[in-house]
Amino acid sequence: MRTVTYGAACSLDGFIAGPKGEIDWVHSSRDVAGAMAKYWKSVDTILMGRKTYEVAQAMGGGPAMPGITGTYVFSRTLDQVRGAELIHDDAGAFVRSLKDKPGKGICLLGGGQLAHSLFAADVIDEVGLNIHPMLLGGGHPLFPDIGRRIRLELIENATIDGGGILASYRVVH
């Protein structure tokens, strides 16, 4: 069965974006680039919600990534998307069916609301965080109220340039 990883950059106080969606506080480095290059080789599918998709499009949409065979955008309001398949159905059921198909890992990019529904459906297997030494004081939370406790086990962690931490956790189902 394939692994679904929820990955995001976040502030130390648990936000993935500031109150107005700003991400100017996110620090990039060679450490992060190296970790991401390794990670992208392990996945072939990307999941994102409407807001993450719209941010990606506003930033130019980016070129297609080598090795990615499926990109899915989950939205109840969009009628069409570019470079991805639009999913209106139950996100949990759809991802559960993806996990049963052959392939590499599945990456859930940013977006707390989609993560919320996929945690509720119990289909997220890992959480990968790039934790920045920044307190935003408010904004878009990494984990909107999930409604239950979810136990995690540390897989690995590393301090990175700029004082951040890369941390990977396994969800205990």
Question: Could you describe the 3D structure shown?
Answer:
By secondary structure, the protein is an alpha/beta fold. 23% of the residues lie in helices and 33% in strands. The strands form two sheets. The chain has an eight-stranded mixed beta sheet with strand order 5-4-3-6-1-7-10-9, with helices on both faces. Strand 9 (152-160) and strand 10 form a beta hairpin.
Tags for this model:
alpha/beta, two-stranded antiparallel ribbon, 4 helices, 173 residues, single chain, Dihydrofolate Reductase, subunit A, eight-stranded mixed beta sheet
Summary of the model, kept short:
The chain is 23% helix and 33% strand. It is α/β, with parallel strands linked by helices. The two termini are 14 Å apart.
Helix content: 10-25%
Strand order within the widest beta sheet:
5-4-3-6-1-7-10-9
Silhouette: globular
The number of distinct β-strands equals 10
- Tell me the name of the CATH class: Alpha Beta
CATH architecture: 3-Layer(aba) Sandwich
H and E order: EEHEHEEHEHEEEE
CATH topology: Dihydrofolate Reductase, subunit A
Blueprint of the fold:
Blueprint: E1 4-11, E2 15-17, H1 30-40, E3 43-49, H2 50-58, E4 70-74, E5 85-87, H3 91-100, E6 105-109, H4 112-120, E7 126-132, E8 140-141, E9 152-160, E10 164-171
Parallel strand pairs: 1-6, 1-7, 3-4, 3-6, 4-5
Antiparallel strand pairs: 2-8, 7-10, 9-10
